[in-house]
């Protein structure tokens, strides 16, 4: 299973003894039975993990991998025993939050229409389009059927925060930061749909029709019941006079059809003040109150931002572990 910018392959074997030491391979020992539909045979004695099973394996290994990575500086600096237990417990809680955020991000990618990992030939931060590898419903059905297996509960919780149809990593980041739960650093402002499609306006709406150059409108994020659209304007694709004019006509047509359009920029989504500005606009349009009751909300918001926004660096990677039936 390739991982962001690394090209590593995760290999699942049936016992600890079969784990090897080959560069570029990360071994996982699965000593319990593989759930039905979890693998697909590729060759003699070679099976490929299907997305639902791979997602469950990641849910099992990520918390321990992240906790181990966080504990490294403490081990190296030899923290005193008096403060170790509370610090270790805080590390575990933070590792679980980060693992949950990473799983939500991965679920969006698996069920979205973009590659989660950069492939050869693209500039940093560019992703390719593709068909969804699975759906939230399929991932949930598989996890629900994997009773007693490690990672199941965390996987199901992550799937409760994810959705189908995201078309880019920035759409995923925008959805999580603005609409994710406040306990994880989001603003909890509702449940928008990804790439909601509006058919070409009826001819009686002459003003909107005259402005329209499109057979339909696909909105990055939409709350149809509030007629609210959020559109992400990237630094790369929404520049130049021709594209700016086209975007303006599109927004005017949407406004003519009674929609409110909020434009989100890269600079806004990457800062706490920018996100809060957008969140307040959404709250004003929807009439939904912003209820931030988490004491360390800003810290958790930064945790979420560190996971969901691509920086060109490495992602959180699961280390070798043993996956067992409980």
Can you give me a brief rundown of this structure?
The chain is α/β, with parallel strands linked by helices and 326 residues long.
Would you mind describing this structure in some detail?
The protein has helices spanning 51-77, 81-110, 136-145, 152-159, 169-179, 206-211, 241-256, 266-269, 272-286, 297-308, and strands at 9-13, 25-30, 39-43, 46-49, 193-199, 216-223, 228-233, 260-265, 321-323. The chain is of the alpha/beta class. Helix 7 links the parallel strand 7 (228-233) and strand 8. The chain is globular and about 65 Å long.
Descriptive tags:
326 residues, alpha/beta, 10 helices, three-stranded parallel sheet, disordered C terminus, four-stranded mixed sheet, globular
Number of helices: 10
Q: What profile does the largest beta sheet have?
A: 4 strands, mixed
Q: Kindly report the average pLDDT value.
A: 79
- Span between termini: 25 Å
Shape: globular
Number of strands: 9
Strand order, largest beta sheet: 5-6-7-8
Poorly predicted runs of 5 or more residues? 1-6, 119-125, 312-326
Question: Secondary-structure map with pairings?
Answer:
Blueprint: E1 9-13, E2 25-30, E3 39-43, E4 46-49, H1 51-77, H2 81-110, H3 136-145, H4 152-159, H5 169-179, E5 193-199, H6 206-211, E6 216-223, E7 228-233, H7 241-256, E8 260-265, H8 266-269, H9 272-286, H10 297-308, E9 321-323
Parallel strand pairs: 1-2, 2-9, 7-8
Antiparallel strand pairs: 3-4, 5-6, 6-7
Helix pairs in contact: 1-2, 1-3, 2-4, 2-10, 3-4, 5-10
């Amino acid at each position: 299973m390739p991982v962001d910018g690394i090209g590593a392959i995760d290999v699942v074997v049936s016992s600890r003894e079969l784990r090897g030491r080959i560069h570029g391979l990360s071994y996982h020992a699965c000593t319990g039975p593989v759930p039905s539909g979890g693998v697909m045979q590729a060759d003699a004695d070679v099976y490929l993990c299907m997305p639902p099973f791979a997602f469950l394996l990641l849910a099992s290994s990520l918390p321990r991998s992240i906790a181990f990575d966080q504990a490294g500086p403490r081990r190296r600096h030899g923290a005193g025993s008096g403060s170790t237990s509370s610090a270790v417990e805080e590390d575990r809680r933070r590792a679980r939050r980060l693992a949950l955020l990473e799983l939500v991000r991965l679920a969006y990618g698996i069920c979205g229409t973009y590659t989660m990992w950069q492939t050869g030939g693209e500039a940093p931060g560019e992703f390719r389009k593709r068909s969804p590898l699975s759906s939230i419903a399929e991932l949930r059905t598989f996890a629900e059927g994997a009773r007693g297996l490690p990672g199941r509960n965390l996987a199901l919780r992550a799937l409760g925060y994810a959705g189908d149809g995201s078309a880019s990593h920035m759409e995923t980041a925008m959805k999580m930061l603005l609409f994710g739960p406040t306990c994880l650093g989001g603003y909890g402002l509702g449940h928008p749909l990804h790439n909601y499609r509006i058919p070409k306006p009826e001819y009686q709406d002459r003003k909107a029709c005259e402005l329209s150059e499109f057979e339909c409108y696909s909105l990055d994020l939409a709350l149809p019941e509030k007629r609210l659209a959020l559109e992400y304007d990237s630094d790369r694709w929404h520049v130049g006079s021709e594209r700016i004019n086209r975007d303006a006509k599109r927004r005017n047509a949407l406004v003519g059809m009674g929609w409110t359009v909020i434009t989100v920029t890269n600079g806004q989504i990457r800062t706490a003040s920018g996100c809060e500005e957008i969140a307040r606009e959404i709250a004003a349009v929807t009439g939904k109150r912003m209820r931030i009751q988490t004491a360390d909300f800003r810290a958790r918001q930064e945790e979420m931002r560190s996971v969901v926004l691509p920086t060109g660096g490495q992602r959180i990677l699961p280390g070798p572990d043993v996956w067992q039936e409980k």
